[in-house]
Amino acid sequence: MTEKKLPLNEDKLREFALYAGTPFHIYDGRAIRENAVSMMNAFSWSEGFINYFAVKALPNIAILRLLGEAGFGADCSSLPELKLAAAAGIPGERIMFSSNDTADEEFREAFQMGAIINLDDISHIDDVIRVCGSLPETLSFRYNPGPERTGNAIIGNPVEAKYGVTHDQLCECYRKAAEHGVKHFMLHTMVASNELNEDYIVETARMLFALVGEIRRETGIIIEQVDLGGGIGIPYRPEETAISFHHLSARIKDMYSEMIEGKGLSPLRLSFECGRCITGPHGWLIAKVLHVAHKYKDYAGLDACMADLMRPALYGAYHHITVLGKESAATRHLYDVTGSLCENNDKFAIDRALPELEQGDILAIHDTGAHGHSMGFNYNAKLRHAEYLITDDGIYCIRRAETYEDYIRTMMDPPVLRAEWQ
Ligand SMILES: *Cc1c(COP(=O)(O)O)cnc(C)c1O
């Protein structure tokens, strides 16, 4: 079981919502920092342990800076994400560039920043040499275990996944990298998403530890770091339970003793690329009820929509909802909680039992601190909402709401004739 908390007491949060104007995201910076520190502490037995925070989960410079100060790095997969990490002051050696289908300019930027390049395909070795003139001193490969692992619902079956090099290609990748002067080797995989079963993450460690031994036997190459990727889940539903970093770490440590230290393969650094479990539970989308409508079903229409939080419409994902000020009221009414897009799947919840709703009620949609604002879009010319961060000194605006002028900034009106093509 997981208690669904709010970042401020209900009255304060409602007052702030009325002052700031809904919809907006609010993040609890204190809880995010604590969470990051607790992960670093849990794995402190592993020298040089790091979590490269997956920027896509919450791509805001203020958040990346806070996480960088807590000792995290950044996991980037595009050129703008690399720039965000740099803008947050995260040094190149703490940036993991885990891209796929990578453009030349992305390899170039990652190489110049001194980020760790994590190659998604054997053919990318030649691409990096062509674009950057050589391979970097440190290089990582992303492994796809194929039929060896089963995957889970969000990330899919590894055999069907576009990511990573196959088992048969892996040793060839390291040999080729060594021939081209690479000195430090890393191994990466990402086979889970939103996984709450700790066994699955432990199995991933086992798989990588075994591969480190296999690569050493086959090629003589020493893998210095294994990156277990992201994918640690969060309890979106109150009846679910979070993975404990301490418990997970203890199990991985036991396996490390046996499979790495016991076989003369140490030292081996450990890293993750978790995004969701770091910020997810510490963000809330705050929205107001615009209309309560009684049709064939009962609807509560919000001033937020799927363009502000796509997960429910995209995956049927559950997000807990609290009606501020009605915490203790009986949840006797079933509502579809909707947005205003001209799309009938624009719903935050279907048949959700909530207290009786009225126009003007303020709702907190929980666990939106990862893949919330960042998955937003502008369909129906919806403007992107603001983001706020609670810190010890108060509430900061870390992204203002988009305006109509922002929205049309890239539109060419009047249209520009591409004269060179006439
Ligand atoms: C999405 C992603 C992550 C982060 O996943 P979470 O579920 O947010 O932990 C890490 N690494 C890669 C390569 C990813 O694509």
Describe this protein's structure.
- By secondary structure, the protein is an alpha/beta fold.
- The protein is built from twelve helices and 17 strands.
- It has helices spanning 10-20, 29-42, 61-69, 79-87, 104-113, 124-132, 167-179, 198-219, 245-259, 276-279, 311-315, 404-407; strands spanning 24-28, 50-54, 73-76, 95-97, 116-119, 138-143, 184-189, 223-227, 269-272, 283-294, 298-302, 321-323, 333-338, 347-354, 362-365, 386-391, 394-399.
- Strands 1, 10, 11, 12, 13, 14, 15, 16 and 17 form a nine-stranded mixed β-sheet that branches. It has an eight-stranded parallel β-barrel with strand order 2-3-4-5-6-7-8-9, surrounded by five helices.
- α8 links the parallel β7 (184-189) and β8 (223-227).
- α5 packs across α6.
- It is globular and about 70 Å long.
- It starts with 9 loop residues before the first helix and ends in a 15-residue tail after the last helix.
- The model has no long low-confidence stretch (mean pLDDT 96).
- Pyridoxal-5'-phosphate binds at residues 54, 56-57, 75, 98, 190, 193, 229-232, 273-276, 370.
Features:
single chain, about 425 residues, alpha/beta, 9-stranded mixed beta sheet, 8-stranded parallel beta barrel, 12 helices, 17 strands, about 20% strand, binds pyridoxal-5'-phosphate
- What structural category arises from helix and sheet content? alpha/beta
Which of globular, elongated, flat, extended, rod-shaped describes the shape?
globular
Round the mean pLDDT to the nearest integer and report it: 96
Strand content: 15-25%
Q: Mind telling me the C-alpha Rg?
A: 23 Å
